[in-house]
Amino acid sequence: MADKTLVILISGRGSNMEAILDAKLPARVAAVVSNSPDAPGLAIAARRGIPTAVVDHRRHGDRAAFDAALAAEIEKHAPDLVALAGFMRILGPEFVARYAGRLMNIHPSLLPSFPGLHTHRRALEAGVRIHGCTVHFVNPGLDDGPIIVQAAVPVFPGDTEEALAARVLREEHRVYPQAVRWFCEGRMRLAAGKVVIDAARPREQVLLSPAVEK
Ligand code: GAR
Known about the structure:
Blueprint: E1 4-10, H1 15-22, E2 27-34, H2 40-47, E3 52-54, H3 63-75, E4 81-84, H4 93-98, E5 103-107, H5 119-126, E6 130-137, E7 147-154, H6 161-184, E8 188-191, E9 194-197, E10 206-208
Parallel strand pairs: 1-2, 1-4, 2-3, 4-5, 7-10
Antiparallel strand pairs: 5-6, 6-7, 8-9
Helix pairs in contact: 1-6
């Protein structure tokens, strides 16, 4: 099967982007695009020889104009998949419809709990005992869409926001490349609005860390 073409969208650090680049997937990352010229992830991508581009949201009058400029940049590469990796702009319904079924996002909570910002702080405030991250296809709603894979981590008494964020981020770096791999291998389909992963053992789709049996 031919390698899939990917475009990765970032806004900041780019550690999830790096995890995807490190995973040796059957994919070619054609470009990394940021809405912010200051995103540290851009330099990381460039050092690895990946073409980068900036579509600065501040240079576009409204969201529709930004979305159109972003889509034009993406379309230069005709990707099979667009992966949002810490991309912190809300995309409008037209953009989302255009990339339906090939627009993936990672979110640092167990959706549908805690969509939006400051997920680790809010998890601590809510007193949940289990927190985590979700990879999902993107719908027009905020941090909404069919769930592909989730990883759960414990919340320990005395955890700080930083400690919890770091524990979740380690799992993000495992599940996002896994989800992209399933997509690239053509093992993913939607059935009745839910994601079915062909040939994945059930336990591959639910990561618990530390594993329950330990
Ligand atoms: C990650 O924790 C990602 O889940 C989150 O931003 C961080 C980006 O880190 N994304 C969202 O909150 C999207 N709603 P990274 O730039 O190092 O990958």
